[in-house]
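User: Can you recover a sequence for this backbone? Please restate the input before giving your answer.

Assistant: Of course. Working from this structure:
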């Protein structure tokens, strides 16, 4: 019996496997070309659109400085009132006041604080403004004082038994950026029992639409010559 041979069978099987692998690879290449390229293109277009939106979006304002190279806008400073008295910052002043009508009076009965000024050194306008002034001694309001200052029935500030309030000449003024606004002059009456030269603490608050008012404290003394 002649010997068996499988050479042709194996050769045929190998050829079939190569053909099948080639067809499979061709199918995958076709699928990638039809769907994969489109997906990659869509992802690329989406990325380009996102980058464009980020480049064209307004830049946020730098929170730590008014201007900086990374900011496209200038940060606006909120309204802020500076309290002035006799042309200078009121806080910390010490004034000796006599009777303007009788400067040589030994024990003056009245005095004038002069006009307060409030300056808005912010970039935005204030809300409506009003003022409250407190004394730690029983300072009255003299007949020469403007009717714009009114005395409260009871003070809301501990340690200051006397309180006056005022809404300005025209009432509830709005102070624009950079504007300085004058307030009515306050004329007070000294208590007779108050010694000449004894310091009296004054606190004044200006409310202007923010949660906390602008506050200044200073001292006044009765000018005169003790007996």
């Amino acid at each position: 019996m002649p010997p068996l041979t499988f050479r042709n069978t194996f050769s045929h099987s190998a050829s079939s496997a190569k053909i099948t692998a080639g067809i499979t690879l061709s199918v995958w290449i076709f699928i990638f070309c039809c769907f994969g390229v489109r997906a990659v293109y869509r992802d690329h277009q989406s990325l380009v659109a996102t980058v464009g939106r980020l480049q064209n979006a307004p830049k946020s304002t730098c929170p730590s400085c008014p201007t900086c190279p990374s900011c496209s806008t200038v940060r606006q400073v909120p309204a802020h009132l500076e309290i002035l008295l006799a042309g200078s910052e009121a806080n910390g002043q010490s004034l000796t006041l006599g009777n303007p009508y009788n400067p040589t009076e030994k024990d003056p009965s009245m005095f004038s604080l002069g006009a307060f000024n409030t300056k808005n050194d912010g970039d935005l306008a204030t809300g409506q403004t009003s003022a409250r002034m407190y004394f730690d001694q029983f300072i009255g309001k003299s007949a020469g004082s403007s009717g714009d200052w009114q005395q409260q029935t009871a003070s809301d500030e501990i340690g200051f038994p006397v309180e006056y309030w005022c809404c300005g000449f025209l009432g509830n003024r709005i102070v624009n950026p950079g504007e300085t606004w004058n307030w009515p002059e306050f004329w007070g009456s000294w208590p007779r029992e108050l010694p000449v030269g004894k310091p009296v603490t004054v606190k004044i608050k200006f409310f202007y639409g923010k949660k906390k008012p602008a506050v200044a404290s200073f001292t006044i003394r009765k000018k005169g010559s003790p007996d």
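That completes the design. Residues 185 and 223 are 19 Å apart (CA to CA).
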